[in-house]
Amino acid sequence: MKYNRITIALLFCFAFTFLLSAQTENLQTKVIDGKEFYIYKVKPSEGFYILSHKFGISQEEIIRYNPAAKNGLKKGQLLMIPTNKGVNKQDSEPEIESTFEHTIVRGESLYSISKTYKVPIRSIIALNPGSERGIKAGATLKIPQRYQKPEKQSIPLVQKDTQTAMNTADSEVVEDSSNGTSNEYVYHTIADGETLFSISKRYDVDIETILKLNPGISPTHMKKGSVIRITPDTKELNVTIEPKQLYTEYKVRKKETLYSISKKFGTTVEEIKKCNPNIKQIKQDDIINIPAGIEYNTVTAENPITSAEINNIYNKLYKSDKKGVINVAVILPFMLRQSSPDTKACLYTEYYQGFLMAVDSLKRQGASINVYAYDSEESESTVRRILSDPILKEMDLIIAPENDSHIKLIADFGLANDINVVNTFSLKNEEVSHNAKVFQTNIPHSYLYAEAADRFIRYLGNRKVVFLSHTPEEPDKRDFIGGLKEELNRAHIAYHEIKFGNELNLLDQDSILADASGIVFVPTSAKKKVLSLIVAPIESLKEKRADLDIALFGYPEWLTQVPEYLNEFYKLNTYLYSRFYANPFEEDTKTFHKRFLYWYNKDMINASPQYALLGFDTGIYFLSAIREHGKNFASQDIRPSIDRIQTDFSFQRVNNWSGFINKSFYFINFTPNFTIRKIRE
């Protein structure tokens, strides 16, 4: 029974192929850019569905080769239908190289690069022997190209149950030939002198498509060595079909009329008159033209696009869109249904309160801002319900919660509706790597560690570097310490390591301290216990060796220990790195504390960072940017914000199609002069 069904299905396919051949054998064909097309005139009542069945192609393909058909088909409309016969494959398909080059950015890893291009790490290592031992910023890696041209989605030719039978039969004899995931894009490394026009010609893709797929580039910003993604062989044809009437000459015989001649040649009197516009009556021996069919000629527009036209395309895609009123949605788990919300929910409420203070500050300057607050309730269904509210599509900005699945829902919504989405709370969420509308305000660990190591060398690299390793426990800063040691090696800066147990003695380290004028101690752990073990011995060394310029290097976690160790930090010339820091002695910080107390009749929760300040700084930055440039402010040259109270902003794209990460962080120096320097760059 099963084989009978298969036989019927195959017969159906053969019959369809025969009918298609019969329908197309009388159609004229033309070859354009190595592709062969039928010239087809649309018949009454024919639409995309009928033509898709007739020619076995999708509606998208028809529109691609006939852009004028976007608004529908009309009777008599001339279409170019691909025959799917390769005339010259080498000419018709763009050449795609098997690899491309990626320039390593500080903070990237093989893992992050493999995720960006959707290739296995082992494939990158195979092309770049030795990369498994470490990669260096500024160096290049060869990346395998894994592009696979999408299969054409034509209308099914057989009934569903018959198709199922065929698939079942095929599965019995055909093994899965998949050898890994493929990629829907070709990745291209921009070469010196390349332009949008030249890349468009090479890959047969529209310039507008390139700009849409790569919001990180512009007509004036085509950086050599950067990578863009492309969908090759998708450019719409700019072809005009010009019909030409063919005819043969005929000598009129005795007693013949236009009617008798039309019957003789299988045409109409009207068609004969069209071929002979100057003849009203005929007589014997007159020479007249008889219709002999229509020949279709095609004219391809090959004029290069001008720079002004390219700029117009870009400006249309990323227009300023300043509309006067700013709409912002804050979607956070306030947990309002709980009788006593937990500390985390209270912190989110405090963030929102700080955000409202930013709104108030800008309104006093004349800004018009509408704020819509929603309780996400830590529920995916609640987030979906919130996003279904029609008003959400009117937003310029959405503040997203910490939950990764909720961020994805909101980020997808933002991308679909051209809305900026701010991820303030999640460090590990990966939406920013491929969604151009996402702004991640926290610099990820890998970038933070790399940037902090670079800044360490510039500020402290002239000192002798000594790592202090507490042996009874594993170092919790293994990744940072490993990266710092790599950078020290590359900079040819020697370092030493002192291992200690429950007691650290620095006075008997003559071999390390000899000939040293300056020294910086770097513990390999940020734990409070380790801090308590190293402070006193370093102070003792400072008292014994007044000739030594001593500094201590520490971690963001130490900021919570400032009230207890402030004097020690001053005395030991301590440097910390952190994404956040509000100097309690600065006037801006004091003023904000007073304003918050006045507004809400309470003090801020003691946390690092302080959420009210985080909400205030975030609100001031984004709302000011939208007010000045519109919601597409990211397409402008975004100026870094280096005057915030607790958090500065310096956004950079991860790649040309990604969102933005905030690469700003502080070096905080507690100086022996009893001042606190917040070092910004």
Task: Please write out the topology.
Blueprint: H1 2-24, E1 29-32, E2 35-41, H2 48-55, H3 59-65, E3 78-86, H4 89-92, E4 99-103, H5 110-117, H6 121-127, E5 140-144, H7 160-173, E6 186-189, H8 196-203, H9 207-213, E7 227-230, E8 239-251, H10 258-265, H11 269-275, E9 287-300, H12 307-317, E10 325-332, H13 343-363, E11 368-375, H14 380-387, E12 397-400, H15 404-417, E13 420-423, E14 438-440, H16 445-460, E15 464-470, H17 478-490, E16 495-500, H18 510-513, E17 518-523, H19 528-544, E18 549-554, H20 562-571, E19 574-578, H21 587-600, H22 611-629, E20 651-653, E21 660-662, E22 666-670, E23 676-679
Parallel strand pairs: 10-11, 10-12, 12-13, 13-14, 14-21, 15-16, 15-17, 17-18, 18-19
Antiparallel strand pairs: 1-2, 2-3, 4-5, 6-7, 8-9, 19-22, 20-21, 22-23
Helix pairs in contact: 1-7, 9-12, 13-22, 14-15, 16-17
Describe the 3D structure.
The protein is an alpha/beta fold. Among the domains are: about 70 residues, Membrane-bound Lytic Murein Transglycosylase D, Chain A (Roll); about 60 residues, LysM domain (Membrane-bound Lytic Murein Transglycosylase D, Chain A); about 210 residues, Rossmann fold (3-Layer(aba) Sandwich); about 130 residues, Rossmann fold (3-Layer(aba) Sandwich). About 35% of the residues lie in helices and about 20% in strands. The strands form six sheets. Strands 11-10-12-13-14-21-20 form a seven-stranded mixed beta sheet, with helices on both faces. The protein has a seven-stranded mixed beta sheet with strand order 16-15-17-18-19-22-23, with helices on both faces. It has a three-stranded antiparallel beta sheet with strand order 1-2-3. Helix 19 links the parallel strand 17 and strand 18. It is elongated. It starts with a helix and ends with a strand. About 5% of the residues have low confidence.
